[in-house]
Structures are given as structure tokens and as C-alpha cells.
Amino acid sequence: MSAQILDGRATAKAITEELQAEVADLTAKVGRAPVLATVLIGDDPASHTYVKMKINRCRQVGIEPRKIELDHSTTTEEAVAAVRRLSEDAEVDGILVQHPAPPQVDEAAVFEAIDPAKDVDGVTSGSLASMAFNEGGFRSATPGGIMRLFERYGIELEGKHAVVVGRSRILGIPMGLLLLGQNATVTYCHSRTTDLADHVGRADIVVAAAGRPELIKGEWLKAGAVVADAGYADNTGDVEFGSAADRARWITPVPGGVGPMTIACLLEQTVQSFKQRTRLA
């Protein structure tokens, strides 16, 4: 393997330790800890696992988690009402609605019920607009985590050709917007893209966010490319890691790459929201 590892686990640990000290200081000044509310709809086992991980990380840094669980038969209207109550609660600083919701729930409508000032997961239309126009605000957590990883390792983005494979509202689309905001030239690819290998082969930076294990073959990559793999299924990413590591300059492992950075970004943005709401920013 010739590629160097973009170590999300180590980077997230460093961010967590920095946040731990900051949150302790902020809590002493304000008289309460930052609060992150998580909304879990239904009984998807993976979603329960992800929420549990996020709650554990909150406690680790001193953020108070507030877990809201809604039954699998919950309607869109009921979920929207629950999120609006959190949006109106002055003691809540951030809101996370765990994806995916059951099929009868209009997930976009639930996202839009989040107060943009508390959208620490970066899923509302307002957050997407802020990312599109590089106006600050909260980043979508996984793309934001990838950007933090690039920052930590000094990955140059300006003038580079980036290919994002995937176009979901919470990952692919905002990832491309954030890269564009750093003056990269961005190509979006997806399930209907023809000649995917050709597009990937011209990229300086590849972000894999399609949710299809080992879709991207190592032999497709341009020599020296930077690869961020946001896929995850049974410890396998969207990129064929072994062959990709032989051609890439930098690459994220799966697990231990993008995943820890998603939670780190969520925690950072919760603390940012807390500071803004308590006028300590």
C-alpha cells in the first residue's frame, strides 16, 4: 500500500478532547451544558446503534443528550410536531433527526421543522442554501466531517477537480457544495451516470457516497488522487480499498475514516450553536 491514511478516528479523538475542555469552561460560565436532542423514528437497528454512539460521544465531551423516540407507526404530522416542540424549547441547542425515517414519514418535511439556528446536522433547506452560497451556517455533518479531515491533513482543494459519487440530500449534494465553496471544480456522479470509471479517473479528489459496496475500483483512480469513502456496509466502503490504496496518495479507511468525523462535526456544531444562543460566540 502506497497511500497515506486519512485517520478519522485519531482526528475525531483530537477534536473531542478539545471540545471537552471548551464545554467544561462554557458550562461553568452559563450554568448549564449544551443540549443536543436526537429524534429517532421507528425501530431500525442500525439507527438505534448510531444514535447510541452519538449520545455516548455527547456525554464524553459534556454535552447533555436528550433522546426522543417515536413509534414506527408515527405519522409525518406527529414527527413534525415533536421536532417543532424541540425547535421552540429554549433549553435545546441542537436537533438531530436520525436518517432514515420509516417509509410513511415525509423525511424532508420533518427536517424542515428544525429551527435553522438549531440545525447542527445541516439538513434543512436553509443549511443547504448556506452551503451553496458559502454563507456560513451549519454544514451537513458527514460532508462537514470530511472537510474537517481534509483541513487537518492539509489537503489542497482550490483548483482541484473533485468527483462526488452520490447525490443524496444529506451527503452527496452538500459535499459538492462545500468543495465548490473551497474553489474546487466539482462533478456529480450517480446511479445514472454513464462512463463512471472515466469520470473517476480524471479526479484529483474522489468522495464516494453512493451506498454501494466496492462500486469504485482502485484501477479507475488517477495516480495520486485523494479518496474519501463515506460508504459503510459490513465494514466495507464504496471504494475497493486494497487496489485503491495502491494508486491513491491519501485515503480514508472503512471503518475509522469518515464515520468518526461525522460525529465530531455534529458535536462541534452543537457547541457552536450553544455559544451563539448564549452570546458567547
UniProtKB/TrEMBL annotation:
<dbReference type="Pfam" id="PF00763">
    <property type="entry name" value="THF_DHG_CYH"/>
</dbReference>
<comment type="pathway">
    <text>One-carbon metabolism; tetrahydrofolate interconversion.</text>
</comment>
<dbReference type="InterPro" id="IPR046346">
    <property type="entry name" value="Aminoacid_DH-like_N_sf"/>
</dbReference>
<feature type="domain" description="Tetrahydrofolate dehydrogenase/cyclohydrolase catalytic">
    <location>
        <begin position="6"/>
        <end position="121"/>
    </location>
</feature>
<dbReference type="InterPro" id="IPR000672">
    <property type="entry name" value="THF_DH/CycHdrlase"/>
</dbReference>
<dbReference type="InterPro" id="IPR020867">
    <property type="entry name" value="THF_DH/CycHdrlase_CS"/>
</dbReference>
<keyword id="KW-0368">Histidine biosynthesis</keyword>
<feature type="domain" description="Tetrahydrofolate dehydrogenase/cyclohydrolase NAD(P)-binding">
    <location>
        <begin position="140"/>
        <end position="277"/>
    </location>
</feature>
<feature type="binding site">
    <location>
        <begin position="166"/>
        <end position="168"/>
    </location>
    <ligand>
        <name>NADP(+)</name>
    </ligand>
</feature>
<keyword id="KW-0521">NADP</keyword>
<keyword id="KW-0658">Purine biosynthesis</keyword>
<keyword id="KW-0378">Hydrolase</keyword>
<dbReference type="InterPro" id="IPR020630">
    <property type="entry name" value="THF_DH/CycHdrlase_cat_dom"/>
</dbReference>
<keyword id="KW-0560">Oxidoreductase</keyword>
<comment type="subunit">
    <text>Homodimer.</text>
</comment>
<keyword id="KW-0486">Methionine biosynthesis</keyword>
<protein>
    <recommendedName>
        <fullName>Bifunctional protein FolD</fullName>
        <ecNumber>1.5.1.5</ecNumber>
        <ecNumber>3.5.4.9</ecNumber>
    </recommendedName>
</protein>
<keyword id="KW-0554">One-carbon metabolism</keyword>
<comment type="function">
    <text>Catalyzes the oxidation of 5,10-methylenetetrahydrofolate to 5,10-methenyltetrahydrofolate and then the hydrolysis of 5,10-methenyltetrahydrofolate to 10-formyltetrahydrofolate.</text>
</comment>
<dbReference type="InterPro" id="IPR020631">
    <property type="entry name" value="THF_DH/CycHdrlase_NAD-bd_dom"/>
</dbReference>
<comment type="similarity">
    <text>Belongs to the tetrahydrofolate dehydrogenase/cyclohydrolase family.</text>
</comment>
<dbReference type="Pfam" id="PF02882">
    <property type="entry name" value="THF_DHG_CYH_C"/>
</dbReference>
<dbReference type="InterPro" id="IPR036291">
    <property type="entry name" value="NAD(P)-bd_dom_sf"/>
</dbReference>
<keyword id="KW-0511">Multifunctional enzyme</keyword>
<keyword id="KW-0028">Amino-acid biosynthesis</keyword>
